[in-house]
């Protein structure tokens, strides 16, 4: 294992993950503090309603958003390695155009659907106007171009600094709302202000970075001219969009289903458990954010990116095992900070915790398949696993209530990882036939994207 850290690329992944993880840990603590204040400052039904409104907006954005950051890195990173700045500029322009279009569509559809079907998700008519106002966050929530630009420029330090803004503002707003007993509307306002301010600061940092590279014109959105310079890009973005839409079923949509079937109080308990687990899985998320840009700079036909994935996956899985032990030992006392009304969330979190080890070990699989141009394999894995997960979630929630929802989550996570592992192994065996899309363009050969 000592020899692993002689690999400069692995050290770069860990360095970037360290940047992101350092502030993400602080952000997670602040976010949990905000949840504790919200849990103590409202009834369980009000707390659950706030979580449902927030996850409704997140889910609507996730269902329509494009993974523009992945597209920017896939086309921009190999080009920058060759000193070509034209392709990255085209990718950024296209990504910005996609973000504007998808964010506007997502917000419009969410507002149209909410008055008619909000009760399906546990949002009552009394809270419809507040939920409609909250939907105006969807366009900024859906923007992934800024993070794509900063990752492309290797400015993980800027991303690290920015990602603490939203949880900090949310925590401040929650403390004030709790301390002065301002009630439900002010907690919603705190969440809203924190989200929009965090997104605006990210855009400011992105514009400053592009200005330094004399690339401000990359912020002119384009859905026609720019993609014409990127081979196979529409195929890539549509397949990643479908994959993201399906991925939204795991947390936001899953939470809405629990709320619709078991009520706002159950949704609040499920949200606490899933938020804590999401905080626990942050090390793997940080590794993934540092991992994806690095492998996009490597030759996919060599062993290096595959070896890097194996090492980072094993390191992440080992961290996951440690986190599960902490959850099993300290979960009950920690949940007690929310108050006795939320005790059931500790048991639910323990039930869901095995999914941590599975997802943290398997986090490199999706990135490897994108690198290999196996987008359809990612989509097929998501379609099968999400379909079975949603069906299992409904059945288990009806049969075993809240704890059944936790069991369904673990089973779905295991199935998704297994279905992603199989095509990844096949891609490794056939790796010598993989060609990067930008290299393919330079050589005049077809790209492997979408195969």
Automatic annotation (TrEMBL):
GO CC, alphabetical: plasma membrane
Compartments in which it is found: Cell membrane
Manganese listed as a keyword: no
Primary residence: membrane
Membrane topology field: Multi-pass membrane protein
Keywords: Cell membrane, Membrane, Transmembrane, Transmembrane helix
Membrane-spanning intervals of the chain: 21-41, 96-117, 129-152, 164-183, 308-330, 342-365, 377-400, 406-429
Protein name per its UniProtKB record: Membrane protein
């Amino acid at each position: 294992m000592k020899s692993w850290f002689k690999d400069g690329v692995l050290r770069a992944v860990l360095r970037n993950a360290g940047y992101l993880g350092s502030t993400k840990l602080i952000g997670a603590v602040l976010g949990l503090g905000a949840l504790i204040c919200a849990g103590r400052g409202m009834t369980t039904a009000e707390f659950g309603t706030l979580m449902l409104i927030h996850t409704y907006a997140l889910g609507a954005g996730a269902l329509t958003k494009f993974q523009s950051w992945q597209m920017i890195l896939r086309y921009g990173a190999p080009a920058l390695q060759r000193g070509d700045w034209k392709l990255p500029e085209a990718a950024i322009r296209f990504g910005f155009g996609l973000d504007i279009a998808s964010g506007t569509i997502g917000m419009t559809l969410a507002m149209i659907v909410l008055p008619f079907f909000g009760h399906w998700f546990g949002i009552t008519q009394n809270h419809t106007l507040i939920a409609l106002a909250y939907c105006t966050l969807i366009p900024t929530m859906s923007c992934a171009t800024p993070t794509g630009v900063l990752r492309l420029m290797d400015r993980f330090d800027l991303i690290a600094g920015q990602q603490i803004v939203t949880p900090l503002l949310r925590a401040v707003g929650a403390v004030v709302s709790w301390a002065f007993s301002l009630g439900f509307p002010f907690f919603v306002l705190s969440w809203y202000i924190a989200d929009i301010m965090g997104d605006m600061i990210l855009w400011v940092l992105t514009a400053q970075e592009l200005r330094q590279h004399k690339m401000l014109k990359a912020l002119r959105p384009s859905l026609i001219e720019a993609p014409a310079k990127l081979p196979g890009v529409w195929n890539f973005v549509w397949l990643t969009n479908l994959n993201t839409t399906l991925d939204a079923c795991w947390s936001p949509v899953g939470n809405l289903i629990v709320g619709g079937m078991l009520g706002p109080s159950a949704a609040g308990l499920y949200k606490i458990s899933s938020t804590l687990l999401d905080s626990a899985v942050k090390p793997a998320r940080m590794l993934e954010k540092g991992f994806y840009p690095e492998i996009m700079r490597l030759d996919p036909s060599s062993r290096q990116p595959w070896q890097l994935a194996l090492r980072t996956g094993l390191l992440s899985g080992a961290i996951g095992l440690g986190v599960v032990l902490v959850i099993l030992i300290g979960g009950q006392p920690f949940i007690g900070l929310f108050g006795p009304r939320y005790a059931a969330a500790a048991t639910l979190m323990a039930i869901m915790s095995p999914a941590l080890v599975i997802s943290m070990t398997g986090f490199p699989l999706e990135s490897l398949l994108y690198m290999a141009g196996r987008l359809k394999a990612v989509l097929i894995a998501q379609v099968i696993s999400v379909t079975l997960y949603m069906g299992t979630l409904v059945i288990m929630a009806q049969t075993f209530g809240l704890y059944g929802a936790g069991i369904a989550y673990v089973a779905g996570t295991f199935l998704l990882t297994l279905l992603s592992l199989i095509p990844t192994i096949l891609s490794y065996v056939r790796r010598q036939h993989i060609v990067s899309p930008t290299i393919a363009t330079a050589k005049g050969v077809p790209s492997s994207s979408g195969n």
